[in-house]
Amino acid sequence: MKIIDFHVHGGDFKLLRDDIQELLTRKPMESGVKVREVFSEPEQMENYLQDKGVYRAVLLAECGPGTNYTIDSELIVNLAQSKDIFIPFGNINPNYHDTKKEFWKSVKLGVKGFKFYPADHGFDPLTEDMQYVYKMCETLGFPVMFHTGLTAQRDTEQKFIKPFDFRPLAEKYPELIMILAHGGKPYWYEEASTLALTFPNVYIDTALIDPLSLQEAFPNLEKLAPKIVFGSDWPVVGSYSALLENYTKANIASEIVTAIFYGNAERILKEALDKQSKTTPETVLI
User: Fold this and answer.
1) Which of 67-71, 136-140, 201-205, 277-281 is the least confident region?
2) Cis peptide before 235 (omega within 30 of 0)
3) Residue 27 and residue 238 in contact, taking contact as beta carbons nearer than 8 Å
4) Which of 7, 99, 282, 286 is deepest in the core (most CB within 10 A)?
5) Contact at 8 Å (CB) between 238 and 29?
6) What is the Cα–Cα distance from 188 to 167, expressed in whole angstroms?
7) Contact at 8 Å (CB) between 276 and 141?
8) CA–CA separation, 239 vs 218, rounded Å?
9) Half-sphere exposure for 205 (CA within 13 Å, toward CB)
10) pLDDT grade, residue 34 (50/70/90)?
11) Is 80 exceeded by the pLDDT of residue 284?
12) What angle do CA 217, 221, 226 make, to 5 degrees?
């Protein structure tokens, strides 16, 4: 079975803050896997993921205090370059970047979507400058992901983490593909489920949701299945092999697993990339 992983991290391990280095090495990996090297070397990461059956992987930028502002859109595009497996998603931190300038820089570099971290980066996702970004993403066909649920970064206020915090965006931008990373773990799964079932443009990713409790987190899993994409949050999750084994143990219906692991993500990415190829920045009134 093909796997599209919508939630993978990479960068330069030695430049990360100490608490983030600890987070990325907390859970055990497969024997012989050196996280620091695989995280930092795209060829090693490609080999590691392909060995587990991963066909494509969304590689996420995160330019914030935990990464010492090192994992920006440019770094992720460079890591993804010449590796067909990787789809680079950029990042904009309005407390660090000139928001509009960074958006257009990222688009020019070649990102295919964005992930935003309002909690970890300490910003209100509904501000006017970010609304500009969402409108441009909707117009040009760039999916956006938001971290939802509690965050492990040591200096956050745990604000802007509930899925319902992003409901105004789902309402205002009906053609903006929104992915609620982590599905609001561990307390707000119902909010994430409600948004995904209410709005055609809202999806959930499974990053750090235990496969063995997936059906408990989402009791309406069969109905929700078309709105869920698989995300590992590697390397935070630890062993990829163990993660996949737990999906097998969870006894989830095969058609649901296929939709989550491949079908839904393939549809999202195909539609997004098709729209991006047809709608160039030059055609947009800025």
Assistant:
1) 277-281
2) yes
3) yes
4) 7
5) yes
6) 13
7) yes
8) 24
9) 28
10) very high
11) no
12) 125
Question: Beta-strand (E) ranges in 61-201?
Answer: 86-90, 113-116, 144-147, 178-181
Asked whether residue 286 carries a pLDDT value surpassing 60, the answer given is no
CB atoms near residue 267 (< 10 Å): 13
Sheet harboring 3-9: ordered strands across?
Answer: 3-9, 54-60, 86-90, 113-116, 144-147, 178-181, 202-205, 228-229
Q: How many residues does the chain have?
A: 286
DSSP string, 95-113: TTS-HHHHHHHHHHHT--E
Distances (CA, A) of 9 to 29, 63, 118, 189, 265: 15, 12, 17, 23, 17
pTM (2 decimals)? 0.96
- Residue 27 backbone dihedrals phi, psi, to 5 degrees: -95, 145
pLDDT tens per residue across span 94-114: 999 999 999 999 999 999 999
Q: Which of 130, 128, 98 is closest to 114 using CA atoms? A: 130
Task: Please check whether residue 45 is in contact with residue 39, taking contact to mean a CB–CB distance below 8 angstroms.
Answer: yes
Q: What is the pLDDT of residue 285?
A: 52
